[in-house]
Amino acid sequence: MATINFHSQFNNTIAPFTISFVFVLLCTWGLTHKQLDITEFCIFFVGILFFGAGVLQGVVKLFSDKTQVTISEEGICDYRWSRNSPIRWDDIRLSENISIFKQQFIRIKLREPLTVKKHSFLSYFGKNEISEMYIFTSDLSIDETQLNHFINNMVCGDTPEKIALIKKLRIIE
User: Fold this and answer.
1) 72-172 CATH
2) Any idea which UniProt keywords this protein has (predicted)?
3) Cα separation, 145 vs 153, whole angstroms
4) Tell me: the pLDDT tens digits for 99-129?
5) Which of the two residues, 59 and 11, has the higher pLDDT score?
C-alpha cells in the first residue's frame, strides 16, 4: 500500500521551546534574587509552572519522531487528534485552505457526520458527531496549497489514480 507520512518540522518546534526556556530562567532568577511579597512570589511561581509546561512540551516535540499525518490510498489520518482510523476518501466532500490568526489549516468537509469515540476529547463536550475536520498544516513539511489540491484530487479519483497521485506527492515532498 502506498503511504506518505508527514512529521513536524524542527524549525517550528525550536522557537517556542527556546522562548519558554528563557522565561523559566527569568522567573527562576526573579524568585531567587530579591525579597518578594506574596503577590510577586505567586506571579513568578505561576510563570515557572506555565512556561515550564511549554518547555516540557517542546522537549517532547523536539525528540519525537512520531508521524503527524498519514496519507494512503484508503484515506487521510491525523494522529494529533487521537484518531487512529483514517477518514476515507469516499467520506470527504471537499477540502479548502483556511487561515486562523495566521495559522494555516485545511478544512475537510465530510459527506455525512462521523461518530466520535466515546471517550474522545469532543465527547466530553457533548459532541458525538463531526461534520468537518481541521488539519493544522503550518508545522508539516509540505505546502498547504499542494496538500489541499492533492486531497481534492484524491476525492475524485479511483484507486490506480490515487496510487499515482501519492507517488507524485512523494516526489514533491
Assistant:
1) 2.30.29
2) Membrane, Transmembrane, Transmembrane helix
3) 12
4) 888 777 888 888 887 765 655 555 556 666 6
5) 59
